[in-house]
């Protein structure tokens, strides 16, 4: 089942596919928390189905059934990889499960030239299911110019019956030569109401899991239950306050917000906000409580929280209703609007810089910024 907000894009794809005007390359652009990877899988399944109907895949033919194993002989995924992963051929593989869950690594992953070079020969092999071939390129924004050049010819001289789907967070990071030859599907932001409904639905409150058809159902369910129980964020029921905070900290992308809720990061972030408010209100000279709460967040979340906070204060100054600003609203931090806009814009710039180049700046930078701000906030606030 495709997420409800992805359904319109999928239907549009089916119309194009049926009309025979389907381009051989498609780019799906948008925050990964919007679920573009699921859309890509569904499109590949419909494309390769041996018995396509009105609503896409038949779910019964050999090709469709192989999607339940997340393996199809006519579909390969090009992943960004570490050197180790590439050595094990995990950079270009039939295994689609990495689009749903991928083990994290501390090493940097990139989309390699060697990986791209494997694509043309796969496309030229004859199709096992007799319909066609599909390649999904994940994290296409991580493609270097060299890697892009390695598949340029494939784009320029498309093979009949093949489709290449590229996934990217933003179109701007792709080369113009590639952009110009593909159909672009840009995933738009989701209505807040629809996103909240998704997050509050208990059936969705579980980590992404891969169902294995070759594993006993009972064993699988037990495994699922264990995974659900091990989510720290599920010890506290997910209510609309939590869901709103998580969405605000996830650029309104529901799947990222769900991850945040499962980890309980929204609770930690709100704790920081409440400690911040009490620290400023009580003129706490040492800010112990707020700094302790802040240090409990990982680095990326620290930056996200500070950035969202600045954004909300600026919006509040611009008369956006406080109910639409979850961090401020749920921690009663309206008085922060007395901070100077100049301070806020400066802070916003610094934080954008930190977010774009996390590797360049030390892990303690967000904490240092937070301390600086607390001092500046207090100075600002005592001014008449
Ligand atoms: Zn089928």
Which class do the helix and strand fractions yield? alpha/beta
CATH class of the largest domain: Alpha Beta
What is the CATH H-level superfamily of the largest domain?
Answer: P-loop containing nucleotide triphosphate hydrolases
Strand content: 5-15%
User: How many distinct helices?
Assistant: 17
Written account of the structure:
The protein is an alpha/beta fold. It folds into 2 domains: 185 residues, P-loop containing nucleotide triphosphate hydrolases (Rossmann fold, 3-Layer(aba) Sandwich); 175 residues, no CATH class. It has 17 helices and 6 strands. Strands 3-2-4-5-1-6 form a 6-stranded mixed sheet, sandwiched between helices. It is elongated, with a radius of gyration of 23 Å. The protein starts with 6 loop residues before the first helix and ends with a helix.
